[in-house]
Amino acid sequence: MKKLFTIGYEQAKSEAVIGELKRAGVGLVVDTRAVAASRRPGFSKRQLAAGLDDAGIGYLHLQKLGTPKEGRDAARSGNLTKLFDIYERHLATPEANEQLDELAALARSGRPVCLLCYERDVAQCHRRRIAELVCERTGIDVRHLAAPLFS
C-alpha cells in the first residue's frame, strides 16, 4: 500500500534522519521549507540533497508549500493559531495549489515520498496540513517519522 511519510529534523543529526528515511523505505524527500537553508549541519538544500543522494534517496524542494515569513514569525513567537491561519490563506494561492497537485501526483506514483521540515512535533508544523491535503486528494495513508534525538 502507498504511504506518505513526514519527518522533522529538529534535535536530530542528518545521519539519523537519513537512517530513519532509509529504514522506512523512502524514495523521495520533498522539502517543504520556504527557505531551504539551515544553521544545522547537513540540512541546507545542497548538503541535504547530496546526503540523500549518497543514500539512494531523491530530493525535491517544493518552496511554494513552505510557510510564508509572516507565518514563520508567528511560529517563532509561539502563536500556532496565527501560523495555521496564515498557512491556510497561503494554501489558497495558485502557486501553492500547483505544488500540492505536483505532490499528490508524486504520492500516487507509488514512490515512497516523505515531507521534510524542521519541527520535530508534526502537530506544530505546516507539513501536517500538507499531508492531510495529499491524503484527501489521494486516499494514501500518512505516517509521521521521528529520527533518534542527538545527545
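The above is record 1. Record 2 follows with the same two-line structure.
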Amino acid sequence: MERTPVMERPTTEADGWLLISLLVLIVRIALGITFVVASIDKIADPGAFAQSILNYKLVSLDVALVIATVLPWLELLCGLGILAGVLIRGSALLLFVMLVVFTALVVSALARGLDISCGCFTWDPTADRIGLWKIGENALLVLGSVIIFYAKSTRFSLEHYFRVSSSGTG
C-alpha cells in the first residue's frame, strides 16, 4: 500500500510574524509582571527596601533612601509600560540597565562573601538569598529585556493600536 502524503498548509510570512509577535508578547508579559510584582513591596515599605540596599555595603544611608524611593516607581512604570505596550523600547532599555547594575551588585556581594537577601520580592532576610541562582535568573531577565528592545513586533500593544488607528488602516 502506498501512503498518501499529508498536505500541510504552507507557512506564510504572516504566520511567521504572528508567531514572533506572540513570543515577544509572552516575554513582555513575563518581564512586565516580574517588575510590577517586585515593585509593590518596595513601594509599600521604602524603609525596608533601603535597609536591603544597605546590606550590600556600597552606599550611604542617604543614597540608599533616594534609591529606595525612586527605583521601585521606575520598576513599576517600566513593568506597566512593557505590559501595556507603551514606550516599550525605552522601558526595556531601562530594565536592562537596572538588571545589569543589580547583577553586578550581586556578583560584588558574593565576591565579598556577603550572605544577604537580594531584596527583590520580600523583606524576609532568610528568603531569596543571593547566589549563582540569582545571577542566572537575572541573566534570563536581561535576555528578555534585550529581546523586547530589539523586537520589531509591537503587534499586541497600545503603540501598535494607536499607530494603526491614526493611519486609518484598520
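The chain has one domain: 24-156.
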